[in-house]
Amino acid sequence: MTASKKLSSEELSLLLFNLVAIKLSKHLLLLKANNILPLYLTEEDNFDHIQSDFLKWSLQLIKYLEDCSSKFSSLHDNKRVSVWRDENENSSDAEDAENNANNVGDIEDICERYEVMHFTNVTNDSDKIKEMLTPTLKKSLTKQGYHLVGTHSGVKICRWTKSMLRGRGGCYKHTFYGINSHQCMEMTPSLACANKCVFCWRHHSNPVGTEWKWKTDPADKILFDSLEGHKKMVRQFRGVPGVKDARFEESSTVRHCALSLVGEPIMYPHINELISKMHSLNISTFLVTNAQFPSAIENLIPVTQLYLSVDAASKESLKEIDRPLTVYRLTLVNRYNMNEVSQYAALIKRGQPDFVEVKGVTYCGDSKNSKITMANVPWHADVVDFVQQLVFQLDDYDIAAEHEHSNCVLIAKLNFKINGQWYTWIDYEKFFSLAERFKKDGISFTSYDYMAKTPDWALFGASQRGFDPEDQRWYRKSKIW
Question: Domain containing 421 — which CATH number?
Answer without folding.
Answer: 3.20.20.70
